[in-house]
Amino acid sequence: MAAPLSGQAPPTAGSGPARPFRPGAAAPLRAEPLLRGAGGAETELWRAGGVMAAGCLEDPSLERHFKGHRDAITSVDFSLNKKQLASGSMDSCLMIWSMRPQMRAYRFVGHKDAVMCVQFSPSGHLVASGSRDKTVRLWVPSVKGESTVFKAHTATVRSVHFSSDGQSLVTASDDKTVKVWTVHRQKFLFSLSQHINWVRCARFSPDGRLIVSASDDKTVKLWDKTSRECIHSFCEHGGFVNHVDFHPSGTCIAAAGTDNTVKVWDVRMNRLLQHYQVHSAVVNSLSFHPSGNYLVTASNDSTLKILDLLEGRLLYTLHGHQGPATCVAFSRAGDFFASGGSDEQVMVWKTNFDAADYGDVLKTQKSGTSMNGTHHTPQSEMDCGVHLKKTKPQDSGRNHAQQEEETSLANTLEHIMGQLDVLTQTVSILEQRLTLTEDKLKECLENQQKIIQNKMS
Hints:
With 457 residues, the protein is of the alpha+beta class. It has helices at 355-367, 396-456, and strands at 31-36, 44-48, 61-67, 73-78, 84-89, 93-98, 106-109, 115-120, 127-131, 135-139, 147-151, 157-162, 168-173, 178-182, 187-192, 199-204, 210-215, 220-224, 229-234, 241-246, 252-257, 262-266, 271-276, 283-288, 294-299, 303-308, 313-319, 325-330, 336-341, 345-350. It contains two helices and 30 strands. Strand 1 and strand 2 (44-48) form a beta hairpin.
């Protein structure tokens, strides 16, 4: 049961909605009060417009909240199986929360300063974190809480992100660079260095071929991972760019900025598709729903907002956090999303809306992805790669058997990857201990030599 939280007034009326995936402002519609939490004013939720047919959408609901951090939350991320939720905080700790009732949380201590970002590996067997202590750590999310350290940045690390195959890690830092690392060998590979101010965020594209970065130089840059070249800079933001991410199709990116806006660009045409002005303060974070139809944002105005990308309008405003909402992330399946705030709370929300549709979309997206990880981009330019199509029933028996075989193979590969993650981490920890033992032995031998020399003299 969440602790009582006071609500806030709904957003003011704005102009009409933007056309789906076309440039222009997507201002908020008139908001109407819709839901209050049990026991008074736990949460307030507002649905914009009130024009949807009854039964089309169910409202998001606050499922639970976690308290344990001693300072503002900076980052949240779900594991693949939704059994765990990771959070980072200005209190220098990383915490792993169990989604099962009455299960204890793990507090991981190792960073010497604020933890700015956390993310689970695709398999869920590793967690990466970046810190103001200039390091990146890889953790095994278990009771022991063992970790290995990556060192290459010379300033605060603000962002960590795994590639979809789990083989690479991209990090962004106040040293104005984006760096790419190999996970299993745990080695630094190369830097991307064209930003002229702090880099707040960096993300791989779903197919791993591109990297997008957001900076305090007011630009969003798109990079080719193979050539290591900047292939385009988006300069439409009027302030620092706090967060950026790829649409699940890989055809679009969305960015959040200190100018209170959220912008969506097509990375094939390099043009602005949508421009949302729905927050009244800095937008700190955003996350795409796995279906690609929705975007959730977190802002210093203390609200979370859910945007319908196909309609180009605001769907919901959620009031829960006391003070700035600093981070937000959907689960891998999209049925939950988590948020963190300066109130030191992590909140878990059940998505609910469009539940009947997004499961079909996820299945369609999975079937449209080949075994080598390459996503088959839809043909439409204006819908940002989202298609809702129903498969024909012909050859259902053969297709079902083929799907079962593919699912079994995928599960086996995922298990192998997970075991490889654990094995790599174990070897790395053993190497660290061996190095430490060698250093101690060397120190002992040096001390012994000094003692012998003193006696001889």
